[in-house]
Every structure is written in structure tokens, then in C-alpha cells.
Amino acid sequence: MDAIRFHRAPTFREYLEGVEANRGLWHAVYRKVRLPEDVVRRVREISARFRIVALSEDWCGDAVNTLPVVARLADAAGWDMRVLERDENDDLMSTHLTGESSRSIPVVILYDEDFVEHGWWGPRPRELQEWVLGEGASLPPPERYREVRRWYARDRGRSTLKELLELCAVEV
User: What is the DSSP letter of 98?
Assistant: First the structure.
């Protein structure tokens, strides 16, 4: 990642305006995201000024449920967030695979001000990922996806926030 590529990428709001698949859901989730006060307080205490790159595709249900949360966190922290299409950025995707082979998204990459990678997160919160790969794997896809959506609705982004703040070395 370099400054030119980063600044050419759409901001989250620009990305949101361009989504086609699940457009209503993307906008509804973004409107409903509310950061807990303790998270806002902690993120504002972080002295580092991160730049965030998210690899995504608008059809991805996990991205719909997590990237609006990440965007609200970035806004609260004053960090610049950009979104790149997974399928158009194979070089980044190939270095951020899930389980060494899966091109799962979203992938959220934290860079410092000099575009040195600080770490990355994705494709979903650990608890949900464990369920999807374990018990959830035995369910037919429609039932599994329904359970995933329920999990996100109950969690309200809290697990995503917690894991991202851990990545920033801030406990929640």
C-alpha cells in the first residue's frame, strides 16, 4: 500500500454510495451503528493515527454487518478509511488470506501514517468464525446465513469493535 493507491480508493461513504448489491441493508446498518461510550473514549485515547483499508465486495453479508461498524470507529478516532474491491486487489488479498488459502472478506488492514502495516482483522469476529467453521458448517446455507444474521443483530458490532481495539493494542 502506498499513499497514491490509498488516496485513489473511495472513502467508506463514497463506497456506500456506490454499492449495488444489498444497498438498502448497507445503508440501514450504517444508520443504526452506535458506538458505546467506553469504545469512543478508548479510541480517542489512542495516540497513533491509523489509516484503514478494507477489502470488500458489496454482496458480502459479513462486510455489510462489520464495515459500517469499522467506519464509525474510524470516524470517532479521526482515522482515514478507504475501501478496495477484493477482486480488483489480488496483491493485497493474497497477503491477507484466512487460513492460508481462503479469500474471505472483509479484511480490515491498519496502516500507520507511513503506510507500514500494523495488523489486520477479518473476515468476521472470532466467536462467530468459530461457530461458522464448527457447528454452523453442518447447517444448510440458508439456515446458517439466518443464524449469522441473528448473531450480528444480537452482537451489534461489539465483538468487531473489541477485536479491532485489541489490534490497536487498546483493551475494551
Answer: B
24: which 3 cell numbers?
Answer: 438498502
For 108-134, write each residue's pLDDT tens digit.
999 999 999 999 999 999 999 999 999
* Residue 56 CB-density burial (10 A; 0-12 exposed, 13-18 middle, 19+ buried): buried
Sole residue written with cell 463506497: 15
The cell numbers describing 65, all together, are 454487518
pTM surpassing 0.85? yes
**Grid coordinates representing 137?**
458448517
Tell me the domain boundaries of the chain. Answer: 3-167
User: What is the per-residue pLDDT across 8-67, written as a single tens digit (0 to 9) for each?
Assistant: 999 999 999 999 999 999 999 999 999 999 999 998 888 889 999 999 999 999 999 999
- How many C-beta atoms surround the C-beta of residue 25 within 10 A? 16
* CB distance 64 to 23 below 8 Å: no
CATH number of 3-167: 3.40.30.10
The three three-digit cell numbers of residue 43, written as one number:
479510541
For the four alpha carbons of 16, 24, 164 and 126, in that order, the dihedral sign comes to negative
